[in-house]
Amino acid sequence: MRIFMAYGYNDRDKWVEQHIIPLVTAFGCDVVHGKAVFGGALPDEVMKLIRTSDAVLGFTTRRDLIAPGQYRTHDWVVQELLTAHTQDPPIPWVEIREEGVISPGGVLEFANAQRIDYREEDRTGCLVKIAEALKRFRDISNVTTIRLGPSAAVEQISSLLDDPSFTCNCQTLRGAVQLAPRRTPVFPIKGGLFVQLRGVAPGELVRITISVRGRIWRSDYESVDTVDVQVKE
Q1: What digits encode the pLDDT tens for the residues 53-90?
Q2: Buried b (16+ CB within 10 A) or exposed e, 148-187
Q3: DSSP per-residue codes, the chain
């Protein structure tokens, strides 16, 4: 799992490099950041790092004092979080906001994303919450590859993969709750058709729906441990 770290590249935020980056690495994650090129508008290479990451940790720590006990944060950290949020689909992100920092406002303020509050006097509590966020990132970034069947349906669908109207959606059944369908690509691999599903937890069931030229193939809700997920027209 690849984590982009958005933080202030200054002496006051050295604790991120000394404590958070080793923690993220201990979870088996690769860490990337824009330290070498920070300043001003986000350069393309930093945006590319964000787009190719599985999740983003953004540290909105104190920068400019604007009123007693109130601070602005680093503009580029806000830009990096916004870049993650505006991808399609959005890249999961968590804001770690230091006590006294005012809200960045805009889209980020109303996004349905987790926020961790940070106080310098309680750094340990913040570390625990970041560890919990990393576990959640791992759960939702986990990719499961499943094969479609039966062979007769696969043969028909294979000939239509390049059709402009082709769509494949996956819907997850989490307990008694049906989640919203998500678009997912179909890959022809070694004579079969496969889909890669992200963030399916143990015990959840999935249903695959393929639509092309007015035709629809759909499976029942099945476990991802099934040998083949059977779709039928």
Answers
A1: 999 999 999 999 999 999 999 999 999 999 999 988 78
A2: bbeeebbeebeeeeeeeeeebbbbbeeeeeeeeeeebebe
A3: -EEEEE---SGGGHHIIIIIHHHHHHTT-EEE--GGG-SSSPPHHHHHHHHT-SEEEEEE---EEEETTEEE--HHHHHHHHHHHTSSSPPPEEEEEETTBPP--HHHHHS---EEEE-GGGHHHHHHHHHHHHHHHHHHH-EEEEEEE-HHHHHHHHTTTT-TT-EEEEEEEETTEEPPPEE--EEEETTEEEEEEESPPTT-EEEEEEEETTEEEEEPPEETTSSEEEEE-
- Are 42 and 80 contacting, i.e. CB atoms less than 8 angstroms apart? yes
Contact by Cβ (8 Å): 168, 208: yes
pLDDT tens-digit readout, 162-193: 999 999 999 999 899 998 898 999 999 988 99
Q: What per-residue confidence (pLDDT) applies to 37?
A: 65
Q: Which residues of 102-127 are buried (b: 16+ CB within 10 A; e: fewer)?
A: eebeeebeebebebbebeeeeeeebb
